[in-house]
Amino acid sequence: MKKNLLLITGVFCWICSFGQGEIDAFRLSENDLSGTARGQAMGGAFGALGGDITGVAINPAGIGIYRTSEINGSLGLASTGIQTQWQKSPISKSDNMNLTFDNISYVGYYPMGDEVLQSLNFGFSYNKTNSFNRNYKANGRGMETSLIDYIKGITDGVRHESFSPSRGDDVYNDPNISWLSVLGADGGLINFVKNTRDEYSTIVEPGETVDSHLNVSEKGYMDSYDFTLGANLSNTLYLGATMSFKSIDYRMDSRYEEQFLGGNGFVLENYLQTTGSGYQINIGAIWRPIDFLRLGFAYHSPVWWELKDSYQGWLTPDGLEREYKDKNGNIIKEPIGQVHTPDNAFANYRFQSPYSCVFSIAGILGKKAIISLDYEIKDYRSMYLDDENETGSVYNNQNEAIDKHFRFTSTIRGGLEYRFTSRFSGRLGCALIQHPYEKSFKNNEIEVASIGTVPHYVIKGDAKYWTAGIGYRFTPNFYIDAAFVSRTQTDDVYFFPQMETNRPEGGEYTSYKPIPASSKNNTYKGLITFGYKF
Question: Which CATH number fits domain 2-109+118-261+274-533: 2.40.160.60, 3.30.1330.40, 1.10.4100.10, 3.30.420.280?
Answer without folding.
Answer: 2.40.160.60
